[in-house]
Amino acid sequence: MIEDSFGRVHDYLRISLTDNCNFRCFYCMPEEEYDFTPASRLMQKDEIVALAKIFVAQGVKKIRLTGGEPLVRKDAAAIILALGKLPVELVITTNGTRIAEMLPVLKEAGIKTVNISLDTLQPDKFMLITRRDVFHQVRSNIELLLQEKFTVKVNVVVMKGLNDGEIRDFIEWTRHNTIQVRFIEFMPFSGNKWTSNKMFSYQEILDEIGKAFSVLPVKGALHDTAKGFMVPGHEGSFAIISTMTAPFCSTCNRMRLTADGKLKNCLFSDGETDLLTALRNQEDVLPLIQASIRSKKKELGGQMVPNFEELDANAINNRSMITIGG
């Protein structure tokens, strides 16, 4: 069992397969020309599996694959199939561009839930956000997942003045589709030019939805990061991830392993623990994992202030979102 000093048991591991991505979303990876981590410094397939087995032996029940875009990694299929043999719930977050070609792999690995990052339902705005003209490909792949009976969650980072006007359009999408739309408050990371006036809050999202729809809360599980809701008569549902205005740190059970093998005990932690070097040196990795989680701060990496309007994003010591893995 992996437990921190506040009694929180950590049984959910997020593994980033790569910091590479075929999108260039400004809030995640600002520069078009980006220096990706050299392959030699990335965890190799066998190293990913070896570290995953250590975590599973300590009680990890769920592994999420992230990136970058995890499916652009050349050996992604081999990694997914290997991890699919472990006794855990395996899930993935992707931008959806490679779903069609990877569908047989996802099925064979036993993946049943796929999170798709999609911040707009407008093709021209999609191009503005991602700098890639593949909106219809992503929408088609979401439809494919639904046809194949996957559980599909759509992650929407809400930014004031950019896509907050589409919130009700996303809710309308759930009327005849069994998706869950997950609205995410815009969070500060290195290089993403976060300011408080771009933040559209949990309450503002609810208020906007309430202008057109009746909303009922849905009881969630203990470790849920998203607060769930339903609109009566809709086949799908929605949720809000309120990291900035109503954080959920008290029940956190998450650990993050970056593509270069560093363990982050919190999305906003200012430090990390190098597991990959220790593994390559044939050292015992478990004490490093345990020490990292024991040093976890009570909430938000110990770097955030309670009032987001007073937050100085430049004072936060952290990686960019793409190098963390979300």
Supply the CATH superfamily name: Aldolase class I
Shape field: globular
Tally the helices: 10
Number of strands: 12
Quickly count the domains.
1
Q: How does CATH name the architecture? A: Alpha-Beta Barrel
Find the structural class using helix and strand composition: alpha/beta
For the sheet with most strands, the description reads: 12 strands, mixed
CATH class: Alpha Beta
Q: Overall mean pLDDT score?
A: 89
Topology of helices and strands:
Elements: E1 12-16, H1 45-57, E2 62-66, H2 76-83, E3 89-94, H3 99-108, E4 113-117, H4 123-130, H5 135-147, E5 151-158, H6 167-173, E6 180-185, H7 202-210, E7 216-218, E8 226-230, E9 237-241, E10 254-257, E11 262-264, E12 273-274, H8 275-280, H9 286-294, H10 321-324
Parallel strand pairs: 1-2, 1-10, 2-3, 3-4, 4-5, 5-6, 6-9
Antiparallel strand pairs: 7-8, 8-9, 10-11, 11-12
Helix pairs in contact: 1-2
Task: Please describe the structure with a list of short key phrases separated by commas or semicolons.
twelve-stranded mixed sheet, 326 residues
Write a structural description.
- This protein has a 12-stranded mixed sheet with strand order 7-8-9-6-5-4-3-2-1-10-11-12.
- 27% of the residues lie in helices and 17% in strands.
- It is globular.
- It has 10 helices and 12 strands.
- The chain has helices at 45-57, 76-83, 99-108, 123-130, 135-147, 167-173, 202-210, 275-280, 286-294, 321-324; strands at 12-16, 62-66, 89-94, 113-117, 151-158, 180-185, 216-218, 226-230, 237-241, 254-257, 262-264, 273-274.
- It has a single domain, classed as Alpha-Beta Barrel (TIM Barrel).
- 42% of the residues are buried.
- The protein is α/β, with parallel strands linked by helices and 326 residues long.
